[in-house]
C-alpha cells in the first residue's frame, strides 16, 4: 500500500548543506533505520489473524521501501551532478585566466602580456560567459543522463505494460486532485458523471464512518505516530475541502463508495486491485513515483484504439 501520510513532500537536504558524499550516505543509512522502525509499527498494527489487514500492511511496506530507494537515488545523483558543475565552472574560469595572463618571452622567461588591464566589469562578463557555456554543456549532459534516469525508465516500463493490455496513458493534471480526476475520467468512460467535490466529500464521509478501518494506516508525518481523533478529523476535512493529495487510503474508500474495484498499475510492482471483493470490472489508474518532482502522481488510461483516433483527429484538424 502506498505512503499514507498526509504530507507527501520529502524533506530533502540540498547539496549546498552537505559537506561531502559520506555525509549524504550516512544520512541515507539513518533514514533507512528510521523506516525499518516505522515498518515494524505498521506490521504490529495488523492483527495476526486478519489476512486482509496484513496484506494491506505488506503492500504499504513495499511502497514505502520503493519510495525511499527512489528518493536516495535521486538525492545522490543530484549531489554528484551539482558538485561536478561547481568543479567544472571553477576549472573553466581558472583555465581561461591562466592562459591569458601567462606569456613566454624570447629568453623563455615568463612576462606579462602587453595589453591593457581588464576592468572588473569585463572580468565579470567573461566569468558569466564561461559559466553560461559550462551550464549549457551540463544541460546537454543531463539530457543524456535523463534518458536513463528513474523518470524515463519508469515511463518506458509503464507504457510497455499498457501496450500489452491494448491501453495508452491518459494524462491528468498534477494539481493535487490527480487521483480524483483519474477516477472521474474512468467513470466518464462508463457514462457515469461525477465531480471532484462529490468524490472528495464521499471519500471523507466514508472514512469518518469507518474510522477503525483507516486510522491504523494514517500517521503523523512529524512523529510517525498514529493520528489522534483530532488529527484524523482534520485529515478528513482536508480530504473533503482542499486539493490534498490522495493515495491508497483514499482509493480504498473510493472503491467502497463506488462499489467498484480499482486496479492500480505501476512500473516495478505487480498490479494492485483495491476492493477485490467487489463485483464488476475494475476502474484502472496508473501510479507514478518519479514522473513529477513534487511527488507521486496518478494518471488514467484509454484504449490504444481511442488514442489513435484522437491523434488522427488532431492531424486532420
Automatic annotation (TrEMBL):
Residues 1-22, 93-146 are annotated as: Disordered. One of its GO terms (biological process) is proteolysis. GO terms for molecular function: cysteine-type deubiquitinase activity. Residues 167-304 form the OTU domain. This is ubiquitinyl hydrolase 1. The gene is LOC106065206. Its EC number is 3.4.19.12. It comes from the Eukaryota. Residues 117-128 have a biased composition (Basic residues). It catalyses: Thiol-dependent hydrolysis of ester, thioester, amide, peptide and isopeptide bonds formed by the C-terminal Gly of ubiquitin (a 76-residue protein attached to proteins as an intracellular targeting signal). It comes from Biomphalaria glabrata (Bloodfluke planorb). It holds the Pfam family OTU. Residues 1-13, 129-146 have a biased composition (Basic and acidic residues). It is an enzyme of class 3 (hydrolase). Keywords: Hydrolase, Protease, Thiol protease, Ubl conjugation pathway.
Amino acid at each position: 500500500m502506498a505512503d499514507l501520510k498526509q504530507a507527501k513532500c520529502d524533506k530533502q537536504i540540498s547539496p549546498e548543506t552537505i559537506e561531502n558524499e559520506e555525509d549524504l550516505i550516512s544520512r541515507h543509512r539513518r533514514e533507512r533505520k528510521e523506516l525499518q522502525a516505522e515498518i515494524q509499527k505498521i506490521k504490529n498494527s495488523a492483527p495476526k489473524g486478519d489476512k486482509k489487514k496484513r496484506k494491506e500492511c505488506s503492500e504499504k511496506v513495499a511502497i514505502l521501501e520503493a519510495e525511499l530507494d527512489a528518493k536516495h537515488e535521486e538525492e545522490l545523483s543530484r549531489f554528484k551532478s551539482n558538485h561536478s558543475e561547481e568543479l567544472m565552472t571553477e576549472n573553466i574560469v581558472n583555465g581561461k585566466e591562466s592562459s591569458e595572463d601567462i606569456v613566454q618571452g624570447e629568453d623563455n622567461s615568463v612576462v606579462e602580456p602587453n595589453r591593457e588591464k581588464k576592468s572588473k566589469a569585463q572580468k565579470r562578463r567573461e566569468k558569466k560567459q564561461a559559466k553560461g557555456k559550462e551550464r549549457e554543456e551540463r544541460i546537454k549532459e543531463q539530457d543524456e543522463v535523463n534518458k536513463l534516469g528513474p523518470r524515463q525508465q519508469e515511463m518506458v516500463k509503464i507504457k510497455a505494460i499498457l501496450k500489452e493490455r491494448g491501453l495508452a496513458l491518459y494524462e491528468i493534471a498534477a494539481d493535487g486532485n490527480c487521483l480524483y480526476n483519474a477516477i472521474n475520467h474512468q467513470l466518464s468512460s462508463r457514462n457515469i458523471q461525477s465531480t471532484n467535490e462529490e468524490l472528495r466529500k464521499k471519500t471523507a464521509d466514508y472514512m469518518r464512518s469507518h474510522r477503525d478501518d483507516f486510522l491504523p494506516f494514517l500517521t503523523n508525518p512529524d512523529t510517525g505516530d498514529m493520528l489522534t481523533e483530532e488529527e484524523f478529523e482534520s485529515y478528513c476535512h482536508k480530504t473533503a475541502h482542499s486539493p490534498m493529495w490522495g493515495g491508497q487510503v483514499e482509493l480504498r474508500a473510493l472503491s467502497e463508495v463506488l462499489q467498484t474495484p480499482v486496479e492500480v498499475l505501476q512500473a516495478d510492482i505487480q498490479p494492485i486491485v483495491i476492493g477485490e471483493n467487489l463485483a464488476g470490472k475494475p476502474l484502472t489508474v496508473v501510479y507514478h513515483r518519479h514522473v513529477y518532482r513534487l511527488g507521486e502522481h496518478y494518471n488514467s488510461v484509454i484504449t490504444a484504439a481511442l488514442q489513435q483516433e484522437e491523434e488522427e483527429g488532431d492531424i486532420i484538424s
